[in-house]
Amino acid sequence: MRRGRTVRMLALLGATALLSVGATAEPPRQAAAAPRIDAETVLRQQFGNDAPWYRDNVPLFESSDPKLDAVYYYRWKLFRAHQRDLGEKGYISTEFMDDVGWQREPYASLNDATGFHLYEGRWLRDRRYAGDYVDFLYQDGGNDRHFSEAIADATYARFLVDGDRADALRHLPTMRHVYGLWDDHFDFAKGLYFIEPLLDATEYTISSIDASGGKDGFRGGDAFRPTINAYMYANARAIARLSALAGDAETAADYDARADRLRTRVEEALWIPKLGHFADRYKVSNEHVKYWEPIRGRELAGYVPWTFDLPSDDPRFATAWKHLLSPQGLGGPFGMRTVEPSYPHYMQQYRYEGTARECQWNGPVWPFQTTQTLTAMANLLRDRRQNVVTRADYLRLLRQYAQLHYQGDRLDLEEDYDPDTGKPIVGLARSHHYFHSGFNDLVIAGLVGLRPREDDVLEVDPLVPAGTGADTLQWFQLQDVPYHGRLVTIRYDADGSHYRQGKGLRVLVDGQEVARSDKAEKIEVPIARRAAPPRDRKVDRAVELVRGNYPKPSASSGAPERIHDGVDGRVVFFPENDHGWSSRAGERAPWFQVDFGTPTALSSAELAFFADGSHAAPASFAIEAQVDGRWRTVSAQQEAPLANGITNARWTPLRATAMRVRMRPQPGKPVRLVELKLS
């Protein structure tokens, strides 16, 4: 059990409850006149015609800070847009909205941000998105170690929410195998992992720039880094805990010992007293840098050990956090700097794509490390003795991060930002709505404080500062979060004036109030878990993963790449991402077709049409099937064409070698088909 304040014992739900002093418990009862969030209204306002996807999926959130609320729902829209349907292999999360040259083909996967994807996706009620992704990572080679990773940790973190042991344990042998493969980045003499910053997903850091003599920094600069060692520590702990769940005490002890050794070595070797910070030591030695010497400056990456609860509860280590709060240090006016301004090559631009600036980590704000640092701060605030940072600091920095999502009044998270202006730096076509970070887990597990656990205890510990001033939240509600097969609601009202049910914190399970406190403090109550719902979904038979292979799309007009977009497994309604197949202007009867090459059982379609000032959903459409070599119109039960949402059609099952959608455009408006799914 995590260290907490004094608790007292009460009987609740037929079990033993642990509640903070001041908290009270009563027999379960339906909360009177419960001020629930109106799901239909909120989801329609936030997501328009695409609201049905979110209705049975995302926890609802509201607070006294409208910007936090808006970014929270935007991040679910971002998550939704990055779900790529691979057909038989299920769903994965992508980093970029479209293909990039360094992705894993043909899936468009990258493993560097996978931990964020899973930490966010674990809070969805539909378990297939995170579950399919974990399967892809471990049984289909998705964790290709292209970049450093903490995927075993994220897999265990998902289990802490849904409680599905079978899902969590099924890939345990592969987790151990992948862990062993990282021996190629382990120095057995030093007892530490090393990596090139580029392959740590952080090119142009101090180690790589200085190893080049300040001339570059894209490649090179191999170093023993706090990041990869924290990731491998977290993976070892996760494998140990999963092995214990599987009844394998010997393996659990082995991996716990590995984690303990890593903790000791990180604290001994990567804590640099001169910097008062965890920092790199060089693996390389040349005319510019020397083996085992520490880098010459502080980086935001030095907080990653706390992201995974690595550092011991030693106030000496906690002093590092003063650098984050310093305006002259890592605390930029618009975001967390990745390197301090005192570094001679701070914000020096080395790399360009044409005339556009490219990615660097020598000072710019990166949502990637901002997420890690806020998670680290939450762990520090709850689990360590320190007097450097406060809950007000956490909320202030979370709000600062939320503001980065805005470009004027428009929400569009990009790759990196100038810490002195808050403006995007890279700004390439690929950069819009970038999924390389987390946010909603920072709200759910961080701010609201639902801390997932392996046992049958529901722990809530909000990071809300006391009081009712501008530096806190006056009220919030997180509604219907899936946890251990139940739906949890957490409601807070600082003075009782908003929800009018008394001041303080209330916790509900399946609509029944189970605990309350007159302030935002840690509460622990037993929760009787239910079996996680099964992952059950239709398989999209139309996805063209490999261009030119079956299933093959064709259309009445358009370039091959745009035709491919119509069946590439992505559903993207963001106007900044020009995605999907479009009919030709003035085309009176456009069509889109998928050839399967063999008779295929089908009974439904999902059509995603996009509308903006130039395009509109068609006035009508008809579905045709090629059966036994002949085309015929399918008698389907179909919805009216819907813009920026999903239009469903169903028919009596048939076996077709090809399917075609014929559309009648609205006058003067070409049709854009974002995606056609056939099941």
Salient structural properties:
679 residues, alpha+beta, 8-stranded antiparallel β-sheet, 6-stranded antiparallel β-sheet, 27% helix, globular, disordered N terminus
Q: What is the radius of gyration?
A: 26 Å
Which consecutive residue ranges, at least 5 long each, have pLDDT under 50?
1-18
| Main beta-sheet annotation | 8 strands, antiparallel
User: Could you say which overall geometry the principal axes of the C-alpha atoms support?
Assistant: globular
Helix content: 25-40%
Instruction: Return the structural class.
Output: alpha+beta
Strand content: 15-25%
Number of helices: 18
Alpha-carbon distance between the two ends = 46 Å
Number of strands: 31
Subunit organisation of the chains: single chain
Average pLDDT, all residues: 95
Structure notes:
- The chain has 679 residues and is of the alpha+beta class.
- 27% of the residues lie in helices and 22% in strands.
- It has 18 helices and 31 strands.
- Strands 24, 25, 26, 27, 28, 29, 30 and 31 form an eight-stranded antiparallel beta sheet that branches. It has a six-stranded antiparallel beta sheet with strand order 3-22-21-20-19-4.
- Helix 6 (151-162) crosses helix 10 (226-245) and helix 10 (226-245) runs antiparallel to helix 11 (249-270).
